[in-house]
Each structure stands twice: as structure tokens, then as C-alpha cells.
Design goal:
Elements: H1 2-14, E1 18-22, E2 28-31, H2 33-38, H3 48-52, H4 59-69, E3 73-79, E4 82-91, E5 94-101, H5 103-126, E6 128-134, E7 139-142, H6 144-150, H7 163-167, H8 173-186, E8 190-197, E9 203-215, E10 218-227, H9 229-279, H10 284-314, E11 323-326, H11 327-344, E12 348-351, E13 356-360, H12 362-379, E14 383-391, E15 394-401, H13 408-411, H14 427-430, H15 435-446, E16 451-455, E17 459-471
Parallel strand pairs: 12-14
Antiparallel strand pairs: 1-2, 1-5, 3-4, 4-5, 6-7, 6-10, 8-9, 9-10, 11-13, 13-17, 14-15, 15-17, 16-17
The structure holds adenosine-5'-diphosphate.
């Protein structure tokens, strides 16, 4: 008997839970070694309520109920910084109490709760739900966002119910099934777009992804559903707004094209009146004023021409009239004209031509070249080269000057409409700031890309490559 008791006592003492026996009044009759930690080594004989009264005044009523009702009772309290769960079992006239330290378990539960709250927030914000299908037990898990996306309450769902299949639009179901078949066959992740009908009838457009995962040594399908409905709505609204803006812009360009075209006639009349007036006998002051009027009208004319060119291109009324021609003919015509202009300005104008057949629009290409050469004339010191060289299957056309050059930060801006460098004196009176915008738009229509190399103080080289259809022999 004694041996038996010693064995039980040993067993009680190796338990990590504190075990105690009290009478109906709460007086401690027996306790094991672990209980000494929660109370004190000499706690036997004292009243349990005296140790825990501060933390919980219910101790005695729990003991009394456990003994009287013969029903286990439970109580949670914190003592010595540890969270404890107390279980009360009535047996005969005494109560047996087990104190379990649940501190770590509680901390884990709290951090698990926090993690799941964060995950829920992330899912809700990104509109992405997570689901899993366990092949072996045919069980389905859905995260809360899946329920929100599908508009289904957790109450109507069951782990055995495949709500995805139920809610996918009939037309989209084959796509979904095919993707899952592919996943099972190849093992590689799959993705696609499908529409689902919510329980309240609303339609949702979703993007799904699915793959195979190993969990608890079992293969499962895991996947996500992303609700794209509001994203698509925003995109559609944006596209509509863009289309409207483009239409308005086209309308503005058409109006500008018409207005500048109409303004050309009075402009021409003005030029004629100016030359008629120049024939008259004028005083020195009148002559000086007339020269100023002539310069202003030249500027106005070039602004109108530029405006008309640009608005025609922006209104998409010019799509290019492409045909085959020898580029050397065009270059020869331009060279002759500019050599004359440059001679009067003491600029050395060199032209290097190549006989090559290209497929392009002569009028637009000429306009592009003229705008670049006009700038070279305006900004050069004393040299301009209009050059060509063969480069792989292309002809590289270059307009080089030895003028003031363009700084790296301005190279990004000069192709914008109305941009003119403030670093150049009287730059505004020399042009309209539309020349390079016309170059950019013309290049777009011709399918070429105009590039620029420039060093401030040394000069600039504007160039572009144009495909060569056929090379021709040199002409003398
Ligand atoms: P602008 O009518 O003022 O010449 P552009 O659109 O043709 O308008 O050119 C925009 C700006 O780019 C010019 O004002 C000038 O500052 C700069 N630029 C263009 N070509 C050259 C060049 N060859 N050398 C130096 N600066 C240039």
C-alpha cells in the first residue's frame, strides 16, 4: 500500500500541471510539486481562495459547485505573469483542482489571430481570395474574401460543396474545367479569366490561378480568385475618357487647320499690298516701317504654314501618299535652293547625295527635311552638311551644323510644340517653336525615328534611317 502511494505521489510530482485537493471550504489538503510554484512550498493547509482572491473572487463558488453539482467547472486567471486555466472536479466531499499554464498557447492564439486579421485585410484590399481542394477527403477550404467575391455567406457553404463550379457562368465553365484538367495532367500552374454570378444576381469578372501543393503529405489544389470587376470598370471609363479627349483634340486640330487655311488668303493679300507699297516713293521713315511690317508678315506667314501643317497631321487628315522614288532627286532640289539661301548668309552648305530608291511620301519627307535645315540655317555658325550614307539596308540621312548646339536636358524638350530654348537670344522672334513638332509628327507618319547628337558650343546632328528598296548607279 505504501509502495502504491509512493508511486502515485511520484506520478503527481512529475506532472507539469499543478494538482491540488481541497475541501468544501477551499482548504488545501494535498498538492503536488508543480503547485508549489504557483502558491508556495508551505501552502498546504492554507485556503486556496487566499492565494487567488485578488485575481478571481469566484474560486470558492467554483469549488462548491463542482462538489455539489458533480459537474466540472472552469476558470481562467493570471498569476505571477502566467495565464492559467483552472479545472475543478468534485469527488465525494472534496474538490480536485488542476491548474494548467496556458501562457504560450494564448500568445500563439493571439499572434495567429493577428496574422489572420492582416491576411484578411490584404485579401480584402487586393480583392484576392484563396481556396484549397483536398483530393483525398474531397474537402474545400475558402478564405473569407472568396465568400465576399462570390457573394455567398459562410452559412450556405459546406466543405463538400463546390461553389466555384456552381457560380461560374455556363459559357465559362468549360474554360475553367479545361484549365484544371491541364493542371492535373501537367502539374504546372494554370491561370485564366472567368465570370461568376453572385447569389444576388450581380456579375463579377475574375482572374484565377491554380497550382498543386503538398500539405500534410497530401496533394491539394490551391488557387486564388482576383475580382477584376472594379478594375475593368475603371479601365473602361479611362478608355472612354481617352477616346473623348482624342475626339476633342481631333476636332480642335480640324478647326485650327480650317482657320489657318482661311487666314492664308488675307495673308497673301497682305504680302501683295506690301510689295505694291514698296514700289511707291517712300520717305526713309516709311521705308523703315515697311521693312518691319514685311518681317512681321513673313513671321506670321511661317507661323500659319506651320500651324496648318501640324493641325492637318494631328487631325489625321494626312496618312501619307507612299510611293517609290529616288531620294537623290529630292535632295538635289533641296540642296540647290538652300545653297542659294546660305550663300547670302555666308554659310558653307555641303550636300552629299546617294542614288537610292526608297518608299516614302515625298511631300512629308521634304517638309521634314526643310524644317531640320531651316533650324540648321538659323542656329549654325558657318557650316551645314546635308549628308547621306549607306548603313546596312538603310540610308542614313543627316543634317549637321557647327552652331550653338543643344544641352542634354533640352534635347528631351525641343520636339514639344512651342518649345524654344530661352538660352538663345531673340529666339522667339526667329521662329514659332513648331518646327520640330512638325518633324516629330512627319516622322511618325513616315515610320522613321529622328535622333539627335549634339554638344553645346560645337553643333548638332539630326539624323534618321530610311529603308532602301534598291541602290542605283552613281550619276555624274
Ligand atoms: P523654332 O521655330 O524655335 O526653331 P523648333 O521646334 O524648330 O522651333 O525648335 C525648337 C528649339 O530647338 C529651338 O527654339 C532651338 O532652341 C532648338 N533647336 C532646334 N534646332 C536646333 C539646332 N540645329 N541647333 C541648336 N538649337 C536648335
Amino acid at each position: 500500500m505504501q509502495k502504491e502511494n509512493a508511486r502515485y505521489e511520484f506520478l503527481l510530482n512529475i506532472s507539469t500541471n499543478a494538482l491540488l485537493e481541497t475541501d468544501l471550504t477551499g482548504r488545501i489538503l494535498h498538492m503536488n510539486a508543480a503547485a508549489e510554484y504557483f502558491l508556495a512550498p508551505d501552502a498546504s493547509g492554507s485556503n486556496l481562495a487566499a492565494w487567488f482572491n485578488k485575481q478571481s473572487p469566484d474560486i470558492l463558488s467554483k469549488i462548491e459547485k463542482a462538489i455539489r453539482l458533480k459537474l466540472p467547472q472552469n476558470l481562467q486567471l493570471t498569476t505571477k505573469g502566467r495565464s492559467c486555466s483552472l479545472y475543478f472536479y468534485g469527488h465525494g466531499r472534496n474538490c480536485y483542482i488542476c491548474i494548467e499554464d496556458i501562457t504560450e498557447r494564448r500568445q500563439l492564439a493571439v499572434s495567429l489571430e493577428r496574422t489572420s486579421q492582416r491576411l484578411d485585410f490584404a485579401e480584402r484590399t487586393a480583392h484576392i481570395g484563396y481556396w484549397e481542394l483536398d483530393f483525398k477527403y474531397k474537402k474545400i477550404y475558402w478564405s473569407s474574401e472568396m465568400f465576399r467575391i462570390f457573394g455567398v455567406s459562410t452559412a450556405v457553404s459546406s466543405p463538400k460543396r463546390n461553389l466555384i463550379r456552381e457560380r461560374i457562368l455556363k459559357e465559362d465553365l468549360p474554360v475553367y474545367k479545361e484549365k484544371l484538367r491541364e493542371l492535373l495532367h501537367t502539374g504546372h500552374p494554370v491561370e485564366g479569366k472567368i465570370r461568376i454570378r453572385k447569389l444576388n444576381g450581380g456579375l463579377r469578372c475574375c482572374y484565377f490561378k491554380a497550382g498543386i501543393i503538398e500539405d500534410e503529405n497530401r496533394r491539394k489544389i490551391a488557387g486564388t480568385f482576383q475580382d477584376l470587376t472594379s478594375l475593368i470598370k475603371t479601365q473602361t471609363a479611362l478608355e472612354k475618357a481617352k477616346e473623348l479627349a482624342e475626339n476633342l483634340n481631333r476636332g480642335k486640330s480640324l478647326f485650327l487647320a480650317q482657320a489657318s487655311h482661311d487666314l492664308r488668303q488675307p495673308m497673301q493679300a497682305l504680302t501683295m499690298f506690301i510689295s505694291a507699297l514698296a514700289e511707291e516713293k517712300l520717305t526713309r521713315r516709311q521705308k523703315m516701317l515697311l521693312d518691319k511690317i514685311e518681317a512681321s508678315s513673313e513671321n506670321l506667314k511661317s507661323l500659319l504654314d506651320n500651324l496648318l501643317d501640324l493641325s492637318k497631321m494631328e487631325a489625321n487628315t494626312e496618312n501619307g501618299d507612299f510611293q517609290e522614288f529616288n531620294i537623290a532627286d529630292l535632295l538635289k532640289k533641296i540642296c540647290c535652293e538652300y545653297q542659294e539661301i546660305c550663300r547670302t548668309k555666308n554659310i558653307n552648305f555641303r550636300c552629299i547625295r546617294h542614288n537610292a530608291v526608297i518608299f516614302s511620301d515625298t511631300v512629308i519627307l521634304e517638309r521634314l527635311l526643310r524644317n531640320l535645315i531651316n533650324n540648321a540655317v538659323k542656329y549654325t555658325k558657318n557650316k551645314i552638311i546635308l549628308g547621306c550614307k549607306r548603313y546596312k539596308g538603310y540610308l542614313r540621312i543627316m543634317i549637321i551644323d557647327n552652331g550653338i548646339g543643344i544641352s542634354a536636358e533640352e534635347q528631351e524638350l525641343i520636339f514639344d510644340e512651342f518649345y524654344q530654348s530661352k538660352k538663345i537670344k531673340n529666339n522667339r522672334s526667329q521662329g514659332s517653336g513648331l518646327g520640330l513638332a512638325i518633324v516629330r509628327k512627319s516622322a511618325e507618319i513616315l515610320g522613321v525615328s529622328v535622333k539627335l547628337n549634339s554638344t553645346p558650343g560645337q553643333g548638332s546632328c539630326f539624323w534618321f534611317d530610311i529603308p532602301v528598296l534598291r541602290s542605283l548607279p552613281k550619276t555624274k
